[in-house]
Every structure is written in structure tokens, then in C-alpha cells.
Amino acid sequence: MILSSDFDIGFEIEGIALESNYKNIKEIANGYGMSFLTGDTSIQITPEIEELAEFYHDDRVYKEDIIPFEINTKPRDMSPLTILNTMKLFLDLYRAKMITNETCALHAHIKLKKDLLHSHSAYHHSAMCVAYLVET
User: Fold this and answer.
1) Burial profile 55-66: b = 16 or more Cβ within 10 angstroms, e = fewer
2) To the nearest whole number, what is the mean pLDDT of the chain?
3) Are 62 and 55 in contact, with CB atoms under 8 Å apart?
4) Category of 102 on φ-ψ map: left (φ > 0), alpha (ψ -120 to 50) or beta
5) Stretch 11-20: mean pLDDT, rounded?
6) CB 132: neighbour CB atoms within 10 A?
7) Cα-Cα-Cα-Cα dihedral sign, residues 21, 13, 72, 9
8) Angle, in degrees to the nearest 10, between helices 80-95 and 19-31
9) Average pLDDT of span 95-103
10) Which of 6, 42, 89, 104 is paired with 13 by a 20 to 30 Å CA distance?
11) What is the 3-state secondary structure (H, E, C) of the chain?
């Protein structure tokens, strides 16, 4: 029998920040011990996001910089504490005004603890792990 404690889970979170929110979002990611990469080229800036970056002051239009980014976690135990911390991370990012669109994604990577990260067996078993988790 396989238990949830036999798994490791990691996340990749792609998103967009306006210049005014970027520093706070980066500090949140760093506070959770995650790596933060600026400039994810897979994210497309849509007209709706460009509109969010515009603001008016004294009858002038200003435009904030739009910064795409990616946050990566290291593999973590799949435990109730990890799930609660991950939920708290998502809420903190939401409150910090992280922006997403259809070109941003949240990816979960699941592997068995016994498999080495990036090994052939980890890739092979991860598909079976996902199927098992979906079925249970």
C-alpha cells in the first residue's frame, strides 16, 4: 500500500507582477524558501494586463512595469503541514496582487521519495503517482 507520506511534491507557479507589487511578491516567495526567477518568457502580456498597469494622476497617464516571473519549490513531504503551508502561500500571493492569465500556470510535480530528482524512475513513477492520487 502506498501512503501520501511516500510522496514528495513540488510546485512551479508562473505569474505576473506590477512594479509596485513585485518586491512584496518576491519577498513572500523567499520567505517560504522558494527560488524566484524573473522574466519567464512563456508568459504573454495581454492587453487586459497592460490596462491594469496604467493609472492616472494629475490628468496624466502613467504605466507601471509589468514583470513576469516563476516561483519554484524544492520537493517537500506530502503532509498536512505542507498542504496548509502551500495554501497559505497561495493566499499570500493573492493578497500581494499576483496576476495570472491563460499563459500562466501552477504545476505540481509529484514523485516517490525513493526516486532521485530528475531521474528516469522519477519521471516514470510520477505519472503513476498522479494517476494514483487522482483515483484515491
Assistant:
1) eeeeeeeeeeeb
2) 87
3) yes
4) alpha
5) 91
6) 15
7) positive
8) 170
9) 91
10) 6
11) CCCHHHEEEEEEEEEEEEHHHHHHHHHHHHHCCCEEEECCCCCCCCHHHHHHCEEEECCEEEECCEEEEEEECCCEECCHHHHHHHHHHHHHHHHCCCECCCCCCEEEEEEECCCCCCCHHHHHHHHHHHHHHHHC
Q: Is the pLDDT of residue 133 over 80?
A: no
Which residue is associated with the grid cell 507589487?
Answer: 21
Question: Which triple of cell numbers denotes residue 12?
Answer: 512551479
Residue 40 pLDDT exceeds 80: no
Cell of 15: 505569474
Q: Does residue 3 register a pLDDT over 80?
A: no
Query: 47 is written with which cell numbers?
Result: 492587453
